[in-house]
Design a protein that fits this description.
Blueprint (H helix, E strand, L loop, with lengths): L1 E4 L2 E4 L3 E2 L2 E2 L2 H11 L6 E2 L2 H13 L9 H8 L3
Antiparallel strand pairs: 1-2, 2-5, 3-4
Length: 76
């Protein structure tokens, strides 16, 4: 998903460990993990195109990986 935060448009995960996050949860996780760790763009259009490209290239991992567990911990 994409989210505008303080004038920048970020590409952040909305599905973590097989769990669909709400937009608010996804933003909260990204902020806790550090927004610098996510791609950001000056425009919503560029962020959306990058998000679609990243989504299309995601492998089917079939379960939670290490990074997913860290992201899920950030929900707490």
């Amino acid at each position: 998903m994409t989210a505008e935060i303080e004038g920048r448009h970020y590409v952040i995960p909305s599905m973590v460990g097989g769990k669909q996050l709400t937009g608010r949860q996804a933003v909260r996780v990204a902020e806790r993990m550090g927004l610098r760790n996510y791609p950001s763009f000056a425009t919503a259009d560029k962020a959306l195109r990058a998000s679609e490209d990243l989504h299309d290239r995601q492998p089917d991992r079939g379960g939670a990986g290490l990074d997913d567990r860290r992201l899920l911990e950030a929900l707490r």
